[in-house]
Amino acid sequence: MGKPYVRLDRNQAAMLLVDHQTGLLSLVRDIDPDRFKNNVLATADVARYFGLPTVLTTSFEDGPNGPLVPELREMFPDAPFIPRPGQINAWDNEDFVRAVKATGRRQLIIAGVVTEVCVAFPALSAIEEGFEVFVVTDASGTFNELTRHSAWNRMSQAGVQLMTWFGLAAELHRDWRNDVEGLGTLFSNHIPDYRNLITAYTTLTKGR
Amino acid sequence: MGKPYVRLDRNQAAMLLVDHQTGLLSLVRDIDPDRFKNNVLATADVARYFGLPTVLTTSFEDGPNGPLVPELREMFPDAPFIPRPGQINAWDNEDFVRAVKATGRRQLIIAGVVTEVCVAFPALSAIEEGFEVFVVTDASGTFNELTRHSAWNRMSQAGVQLMTWFGLAAELHRDWRNDVEGLGTLFSNHIPDYRNLITAYTTLTKGR
Amino acid sequence: MGKPYVRLDRNQAAMLLVDHQTGLLSLVRDIDPDRFKNNVLATADVARYFGLPTVLTTSFEDGPNGPLVPELREMFPDAPFIPRPGQINAWDNEDFVRAVKATGRRQLIIAGVVTEVCVAFPALSAIEEGFEVFVVTDASGTFNELTRHSAWNRMSQAGVQLMTWFGLAAELHRDWRNDVEGLGTLFSNHIPDYRNLITAYTTLTKGR
Amino acid sequence: MGKPYVRLDRNQAAMLLVDHQTGLLSLVRDIDPDRFKNNVLATADVARYFGLPTVLTTSFEDGPNGPLVPELREMFPDAPFIPRPGQINAWDNEDFVRAVKATGRRQLIIAGVVTEVCVAFPALSAIEEGFEVFVVTDASGTFNELTRHSAWNRMSQAGVQLMTWFGLAAELHRDWRNDVEGLGTLFSNHIPDYRNLITAYTTLTKGR
Amino acid sequence: MGKPYVRLDRNQAAMLLVDHQTGLLSLVRDIDPDRFKNNVLATADVARYFGLPTVLTTSFEDGPNGPLVPELREMFPDAPFIPRPGQINAWDNEDFVRAVKATGRRQLIIAGVVTEVCVAFPALSAIEEGFEVFVVTDASGTFNELTRHSAWNRMSQAGVQLMTWFGLAAELHRDWRNDVEGLGTLFSNHIPDYRNLITAYTTLTKGR
Amino acid sequence: MGKPYVRLDRNQAAMLLVDHQTGLLSLVRDIDPDRFKNNVLATADVARYFGLPTVLTTSFEDGPNGPLVPELREMFPDAPFIPRPGQINAWDNEDFVRAVKATGRRQLIIAGVVTEVCVAFPALSAIEEGFEVFVVTDASGTFNELTRHSAWNRMSQAGVQLMTWFGLAAELHRDWRNDVEGLGTLFSNHIPDYRNLITAYTTLTKGR
Amino acid sequence: MGKPYVRLDRNQAAMLLVDHQTGLLSLVRDIDPDRFKNNVLATADVARYFGLPTVLTTSFEDGPNGPLVPELREMFPDAPFIPRPGQINAWDNEDFVRAVKATGRRQLIIAGVVTEVCVAFPALSAIEEGFEVFVVTDASGTFNELTRHSAWNRMSQAGVQLMTWFGLAAELHRDWRNDVEGLGTLFSNHIPDYRNLITAYTTLTKGR
Amino acid sequence: MGKPYVRLDRNQAAMLLVDHQTGLLSLVRDIDPDRFKNNVLATADVARYFGLPTVLTTSFEDGPNGPLVPELREMFPDAPFIPRPGQINAWDNEDFVRAVKATGRRQLIIAGVVTEVCVAFPALSAIEEGFEVFVVTDASGTFNELTRHSAWNRMSQAGVQLMTWFGLAAELHRDWRNDVEGLGTLFSNHIPDYRNLITAYTTLTKGR
């Protein structure tokens, strides 16, 4: 009757991390660098924690755009990694699309730099091919708030769902009882306020 | 001819207050704490003033998330209160859904913490089941403006109507003449500027 | 083929000014008072300049909400003025709806205080009855940006077109040659930068 | 299956630069002048670099609105330039529409001042006639953020796609290998951070 | 050797609350109303909790400035209350100065509306007479941040110490052990985050 | 004992309005144009209301800087008006200094455009000559907040007192009883919130 | 002749970390939590890297204020740690002052929560006793910008020097050649942009 | 009698440009990159236009900090350029101090990256040696507003005068008549609004 809830499912979702390269990151100014670094690593931790098939790609990494940040390579040593020789839209690269399709997943979670290009272009292409697309807004960066909101608007009008890494984790996990410690650790590592809650709680209860 | 106005009706609406817990509230940083506390209590006052069936729920309240703020428990001593043992989406908890459906209402007003999870998830689930869903944006808090606007976008695209507690009260009340003093008191208690207007007015007219 | 451009037409449009009352104006904090006063008076000037049928209304003006600001009464001495005895949604007042319909116009331009109530409610009602509705966003005020954007979202999803007073004037005027001096004066009176352009231009060219 | 990706194509797109006049530019206050000047010149450079047919127009340039900024005239010496004698909506000017249609393009990229008038009006008219319309949000300026977001909302609801100059360039170029130096120079000239990346890269590698 | 620490002493300090009147409060726009109301009441609670001699005064309260907010009158039923018949600087009113001097205190804590007038003027006068003056910046409001910082600059250059209500309470209390519950209650009533900390702490420890 | 309160005295003060010219005003972007226009006119009204000797000056007004805004010329038809042929610091112009000294006043109130040049330079020069200098911060405009605060810092360190037009009026007036209606009118004309207070007050009391 | 440069010296400086406790941290809202956590840990890393004698203290840590964040305890296992039983100003605690004086240092670097109390109070006390005091502004947090700037003003007027952790490190290190890798690692761990610079540099040069 | 006006004199001033290197510039986030690039180049243009002796220096430019931006090298081909091998405070480098002293100037204008280190350190050192120091605040960048204001405070308390490039130019030039075209061109090249004023003025007057 109502509109269906297109809900993330850990068995249906794949993670695409696009162009988090050292040079391109210096262009990101709509999110504070400390927060942005944390958001990107948290998103990667979510992918790893839920065992999502993950695809890494870079744009022209031998030039000024620079290499992928080493943390991401280290976190996904076995993931397909597609350094694109020139295609700006990752979806224009056949290896990338092949890697995405090889995951067998229909829900694509995308994060990248910069939002209106490296994220929006493959998102729109994937929508066109019938995928359900979720963009991690806080792990995707761009020049300023004006460019961010232009990109969000275009993607949203096309059917992309805007998520954040925390919402992602929560929607994939479904129930705390699936693993209290695992999710708690994830939150503790990436949300200082949550870490403080856990420290205070543990301190007060450990002696009981 | 035009688009129907899906209007709140005090005889059709129920209030769902989701996860206003002491620990989770420390995560809310998109609204100033003084204002947010006021908005949440005002929303609760609206529910009570209009006699809306109200359902309270919490997420994992024995852990770091902490207990429901005591004011809400005290304001709704007879309301169903469903402490969820683990389900992140309240709609995944059968007791909660049963309590909601037991109200017999088709208009669900939802406020909670944090917006993109504890509010958005049940809102999307309820839409799917054909409910009319209204989210109280100023009584729902989250990490920052970026996460707020991501959550608003996702909910709005799914058909949720974004309201504020003041709009809620006004749409439910319909006509000042239904109870001038009651609504005036509600506004005076939660809007300092309105309280000042009433004080000035009363001072100037009481002697006449 | 494409989507029709629902364009303001000076022969089809009416102006509805809702609840710009002294008390309610103290609630407006999403727009600076100097700017807001200017925007409201500019919107009224637009209505007068284009000869739009105009309807004034107030909510409960004998109480703390206070009287309509005198400037508006003075600018529209012959306009229907409907002080509502209690209805919060002006459209719930039969006199108001009768006055609106008596204008014979199908395009309704609405400005008022506060946006999510006094503007949004009649806007949604008018949409339902098949009117084309345009809200003057910068002549409509509310508590803060959060309440503003909630209101905009609800109205926009229902089909309301969001305009500003300057866009209004430009869309109604169509062509500068219809009256250069008239429109120029309107802009000069309400846009300091435009006044400066005209002063500089006149100073440099008057001697030629 | 999914929604088609309406993608800019250098062989299908034309650029319309509307009313970047010295006087009107003093009205632009939603974007810092240094950034705005850069965005407008970057947008023009994009048009020139990709050889897009370009149409220039001005509103009433003999009056206070002032002349087109000289840089744009100089960059497009052979482009049709239509100084409108009075029409506020450029699409109401037959010469302008004729010039647009003479390009033979179905994708119109529009930038101008001010957003809610000089950009939105022709955008809505072009949509109505079945064109695909892309607005360059960061090369279009207006009074403040409130007027900007009103304009964006109206255009977006009508089907306009919101782009920025950087996204424009990237979507038109498709592949770095089409011309690394050309695109790199474009970015270097208009993105200080990108220029620094190139300088550092070149310094470190030139000796190798 | 170093600069002496001019430290608040509960036996040396008096509280002066200047012109927190219903009308003047509508002028305050540099602090959100919910927060400002809380700050003013917190400051009054501090005065009462530490038993500071308190003087209340108003400016022209029979006119548009309106009456003192009732809460302050009720909190200090026995405090000298000097409605000034016309003097804008409270220090120009002999009754006020007499009441201040009757407290026998040399440290004056001042809060009021608006900062650059009702607070700054008596602060500068009191400095001239050799008092140590502390202004409660967050319980003093004005038109906007520009006027606030002008006022702060003028007062600070004259030797006023800028404090906040929380710093005030902490400096007057000196040691939690003087009264844990009293200070805790004060903080719980006026700092939502602190209230949550106490609720969480109490919930976890009460059963032990 | 304490630091003397250097207080404005209507018999000791003169007003210097420096370079409020049409062209230079387009450079002002640290204060919204509607507010800034109001602040400048309010400052001028204060000078006129208190009968302060006033000196007007402009910088190179035959060039792009443009003419003085006409309102100021009209408000002070008999004031010395010194169009400077080239000196950037008005104090470098002998006619200006002569006009200032001819007022016989030792307290100089300065407002102008842009703050760090047209205001700061004569302020520093006047300080050096032993004048007491007060700058009207909200009637002085500049490029952005960074330039504003640099200018304030330099002036404040040199001994300039930072005031706003409202503080100015209040310090000069001293006592409402000197002229209730006059000051009330001044405030009503330049502070929308104050106008509303007066309208509401008058409406409620006029019938008594 | 000029004013002496009071410069940090690694052989003269000690670090005082005051009240970075889990509960108090939830009060900090003037700095984003991700950034603040990073700043505090960076400040601690600076102390450790330069071998500064460090003193840790907490306020009432058995109550709602909560324990010191574990990272700080772990980083300074041998540092004096003074849990204050009640004194709000750490300088009122004899053990704390004794520990500070035992360092034999005359330059005290202070960071803590909240700025206007836990930092400002001991800073003012230490100044009074003739210490040179440096406050790490970005590792000290408080409720909002208003409270921050009040605290800064009070401290600065008393002679405190406001520093940031980066300035601290740079002033203590003096010369990169003292240890390029050590300082580089410190910066890489706490400044994402700097880490990217190093990664890009290393990638480009490692093969040479 | 009053405080002397320490005024920039083109015959007494030298310009020191410190560490505007490609890598360090990616750390600057308190000023938008387009504006910052413009401010730095404008400052350099000022130095060149007034023929100020200029000294360039860099910090560790063979490492990640990167080379000086090429524009500055090209603008001052004959200026002393001191690449510091390690000293963080340029004043610790004997060659740099020697170059500064060789200019024979007593007024030092400093701009650099980052403000609290590369600017503040040599500024404080130069003050100590009796130089008059002026910092160009808008051509000096740092991490964020908090670090900027900490740096400003420290420098200002030590006697540094905070200037902007526009104030610099105006104070050095003294009188437009010294060279109208030269200063006009400088402003036209770096202030878009000023360029527009000149274009409009020239267009209107050239035909006369």
From TrEMBL, chains A, B, C, D, E, F, G, H:
What are the record keywords, sorted?
A: Hydrolase
Q: What GO molecular function annotations does the UniProt record carry, in alphabetical order?
A: hydrolase activity
Highest taxon in the source lineage: Bacteria
CDD domains for this protein? YcaC_related
Q: What InterPro entries does the database record attribute to this sequence?
A: Hydrolase_YcaC-like, Isochorismatase-like_dom, Isochorismatase-like_sf, YcaC
Q: Which Gene3D superfamilies match?
A: Isochorismatase-like
Instruction: Please identify the protein, giving its name as recorded.
Output: Hydrolase
